[in-house]
Amino acid sequence: MRALALAVLVVVGLAAVVAVAWRLVSRRRDLPCPTWLGWLVEIDNPIAKNNRAAVILDRLGVAPGMAVLDGGCGPGRLTLPAAERVGERGEVVALDIQAGMLDRLRERARAAKLDNVRYLHAGAGQGKLERGRFDRALLVTVLGEIPDRSAALREIFEALKPGGVLSVTELIFDPHYQRRSVVVRLAESVGFREKKYFGTRLTYTLHLEKPEGSHGH
């Protein structure tokens, strides 16, 4: 038991050190999580309950048959459980600007025997998403890594079906942490409306809805 507790403390401590260094560097340049650190984001945070994959997907109501976008998917901490939930009739599109992250995700999806994941090597806001395609979308601790956040949110807004929901999760220990007020302002400027809010200033999830009857902005 002591060994397990020590291991958890080592992982948390290492993550904290990396986060501080990453935050300092990120002040001078856009820096997404490097592929070699993918193992850190594959693991659900043992402390931040609101940031756990199951909690995020439960709140978003991801269900069989849905089309889901996982923006900035990394190695698939949310992608794989989302793919399990949508099942054979559904699909998850994994979008990431780093080919290495998508390669790692392919390996993990293959090992889990999930063939309903589609991989898209691109950044949010680059115009690669099909319009009116998705029921749900996810941006988990990734919005601040995107150089043009307004363009990214606009593209996701257009990629959602009317009534579709974007889930944005932020964790204050993330070097690219975005305040709720900033996210709401950017989202509303492209047509979203705030639907639900969960959590605290330390870690929160914000649901942003594309209004029914909306086909673009």
Commentary on this structure:
This protein is α/β, with parallel strands linked by helices. It is 37% helix and 23% strand. The chain contains 7 helices and 7 strands, in the order αααβαβαββαβαββ. The protein has a 7-stranded mixed β-sheet with strand order 3-2-1-4-5-7-6, with helices on both faces. It is globular. The N and C termini lie far apart (55 Å).
What is the spatial order of strands in the main beta sheet? Answer: 3-2-1-4-5-7-6
SS elements, strand count? 7
- Kindly provide the radius of gyration, computed on alpha-carbon positions and rounded to a whole number of angstroms: 17 Å
Helix content: 25-40%
What structural category do the secondary elements indicate? alpha/beta
Separation, N- and C-terminal Cα atoms: 55 Å
- Which residues sit in consecutive blocks of at least 5 with pLDDT less than 50? 20-29, 35-40
